[in-house]
Amino acid sequence: WYKPSSTLPQLVARFQQHPQRSCSRSIEIWTTTCIVTNFGMQRHRNSHAASKDNDDPHPTLSHLPRCSTMINPANPFLTGPHSFPYFPKGGPQPKNPPNRTAHHIMGYVSQWGGMDVGSGMLFPAAVIDGLIHQLGGKYLRMECSCLPNHSFSHAYHNQQTVPEEWSGIDSAVEILKNSDRKHVKCPVGTAVITSSGGEQLRAEYDKIVHTVPPFYNYPPTATSEMKQLLGIDAESVDPESWSYELLRSCYRHSFRLAFGCNQSNDDKSKGTLCNLLESIGITNQVSVPENQRVSVPLLGAGCRGFPASVAIEAAVAESVSWLSSSNNECLHDDSTSTAKSARKREPVVAFGLLETSDAEVLATKLRESLQIHH
């Protein structure tokens, strides 16, 4: 997700729902060196802003993504990197925490998930969620910890673990199920929304939509109630496509939250959370993002172990569905007609990819799918 370069994001392709209409939905595909620090509002570059009377004081920034909301691939407990010192790429979540055999460099985190450190392991600095929590700091961590357990969590037998591995030990299975149901803020396939927390992340984004893709080879155990709650057709899902359907569900739930459909997770808990955050000095969080431009990584293609082709297929399917659906409301609608205000009102899903080859494949597949759809 990151390249050590100051190169600005490059637009690869753009697809618009109704080009002649105001507030028309669009899909954009970009390449970027980092979707967290080189794709957002980049307010740290606006410190020398011109007066407010100037309609576009930063013409050099007007052609950048400048998204104010980001979709973050998280874990079900919204703990960022704090639950695990490192993680096996592709999962599953190991049943035991890191062992206590000291490593000559890494100390007491030498092995986990049957692999040596550095072999198929991902560290916080190597994943989007790790950087989000690093820049969001203690304020984001506090907000995430204060969120209630998700209302769907009761329908899951497991989240990132594999109960079948302990099927011969009933007590172990029960302990696993109970632990997987505790403190589940965002079950696999769902999404929740928070502020961006600390000052560093607020310089880039106003809101963070957290969603939890499944591990490609280790999805949660499918249940009829899960399928119903997530809006997945129970008749069409076979075991091989279950991970794929859960990944699509991540996009659907994330888009709904990002574009204002049920923006609060729960009104009562949100009020309690706001009061708590204000009591510790967090009072400068925005209630509405500056625009309707939402940055999206290629979900599933990193830590979750999806083949790039499958991850792209899911992204294309849900992008076409979102782009083709009706758009009856705009969060930032107003009576002005300037280019700047129009850009704020326009709902945009902006994919930020690291590799140009992946961006071009995504653009090609999306173009082909839209032609078939129409």
UniProtKB/TrEMBL annotation:
> Which intervals hold domain Macro?
119-370
PROSITE patterns attached to this UniProt entry? MACRO (PS51154)
> What domain of life is recorded for the organism?
Eukaryota
Quote the protein name from its UniProt record.
Macro domain-containing protein
PANTHER family linked to this entry:
GANGLIOSIDE INDUCED DIFFERENTIATION ASSOCIATED PROTEIN 2-RELATED, MACRO DOMAIN-CONTAINING PROTEIN
Q: Which organism is it from?
A: Cyclotella cryptica
The UniProt entry, under Gene3D superfamilies, shows:
Leucine Aminopeptidase, subunit E, domain 1
